[in-house]
Design brief:
By secondary structure, the chain is α/β, with parallel strands linked by helices. The protein has helices spanning 15-30, 42-46, 54-57, 78-91, 102-113, 138-159, 174-182, 198-209, 248-260, 280-298, 319-322, 330-335, and strands at residues 2-7, 33-37, 49-52, 95-100, 119-122, 162-167, 187-189, 214-219, 264-268, 304-309, 312-317.
């Protein structure tokens, strides 16, 4: 079989592990031929590709990023679906394995519905795709951010400062929650739970006075309750009064310093969270997912993605990943409330 591979959306530790497993298994077990489309969906749209053989993937497992490049090109429109199908037919491509998040797999869903054989592999450091218990890249991002917070705690304690650390998580707070738990932070602020600041200000003031560290972990998509921004002019808000995504750490730090009377600084970890080498867990998970994806194709499946369900890798409909985002349930915050200051006061 002649198979196309592509990686779309944000870069993520573990993408190369999937590529390696798919190509290695496909060539050695099934005699497949592989084409790597460059820069996400732009590749099949513009027929920009490279051949992928065993030598090309032999040493890429520990590498971060993706050897194929990536982009956020939207391929889900009817016109682009038709163009991709025509390009695939002209190139003799019989099936596609797209690796990506909600947008990438959404386009794969449209292609599968139009008749293209597709088996997707879910990817996002945010861990917010439904249909799978865990997405690769998440554990690596949590490890990187936890190490950063561990280092920042010593600075917070030494200088008697509050540090507000912004991590990724536009719509879901899985990274912020896990990092706050792993690093014993003072609080986790997440998109699922609009936060207040009065009680948190008391908490961090008490920590600083006790000569302890005071680190607050905030997801980039976290938003304050409406009463928490009443009368504020320094925060960028939209037409509905919601603080815009990104830069929320600055808003939190400004308000905490005013309310607690304690010097407060911000650290935005940004893209460092999704760069660099994947953890051992993610290397193993991506290898398992890649093997499952090529096996599913040869079993005649299409319109599905491979997913971690418990300890098993299974196939589920692509719509399971793109229909509803997997967010942090409120009861989970309540369950962990005793371990750090509650994110909702």
């Amino acid at each position: 079989m002649r198979i196309g591979l592509l990686t779309g959306g944000g870069d993520c530790p573990g993408l190369n592990g999937v590529i390696r497993a798919v190509v290695t298994e496909g060539v050695t077990r099934y005699g497949d031929e592989f084409v790597g489309f460059l820069d996400g969906w732009r590749g099949p749209l513009e027929l920009d590709s490279v051949p992928l053989g065993l030598d090309d993937v032999a040493e890429i497992l520990p590498l971060g990023g993706t050897i194929l490049g990536t982009s956020r090109t939207n391929a889900g429109t009817p016109e682009r679906v038709a163009r991709i199908q025509a390009n695939l037919a002209a190139s003799g491509i019989e099936a596609l394995i797209p690796i990506g998040g909600e947008d990438t797999l959404g386009a794969a869903t449209a292609l599968a519905q139009a008749g293209t054989r597709c088996v997707g592999v879910p990817k996002t450091i945010d861990n917010d795709l439904s249909g799978t218990d865990l997405t690769f890249g998440f554990t690596t991002a949590v490890e990187i951010a936890t190490e950063a917070v561990d280092r920042l705690r010593t600075t917070s304690r030494s200088h008697h400062r509050v540090l507000v650390v912004e991590v990724m998580g536009r719509h879901a707070g899985w990274i912020a929650l896990h990092v706050a738990l792993a690093a014993s932070a003072a609080a986790a602020l997440i998109p699922e739970a609009p936060f207040g600041l009065e009680q948190m200000a008391e908490r961090v003031r008490d920590l600083v006075r006790a000569r302890r560290d005071a680190v607050v972990v905030v997801a980039e998509g976290a938003v304050p309750r409406s009463d928490a921004i009443a009368g504020e002019t320094g925060a960028a808000v939209d037409e509905f009064g919601h603080v815009k995504v990104g830069g929320i750490a600055g808003f939190v730090a400004q308000r905490l310093e005013a309310l607690a009377g304690v010097e407060t600084r911000t650290v935005v970890l940004g893209h460092v969270q999704r760069g660099g080498v994947p953890t051992a867990f993610d290397r193993i998970l991506t290898s398992r997912l890649g093997l499952a994806a090529i096996t599913a194709l040869h079993a005649g499946q299409s319109g599905v993605m491979v997913a971690l369900r418990g300890e098993r890798i299974e196939t589920v409909p692509l719509e399971a990943a793109t229909g509803t985002l997997k967010t942090v349930p409120p009861e989970l915050l309540r369950r962990y409330a005793a371990l750090f200051a509650a994110a909702t006061d």
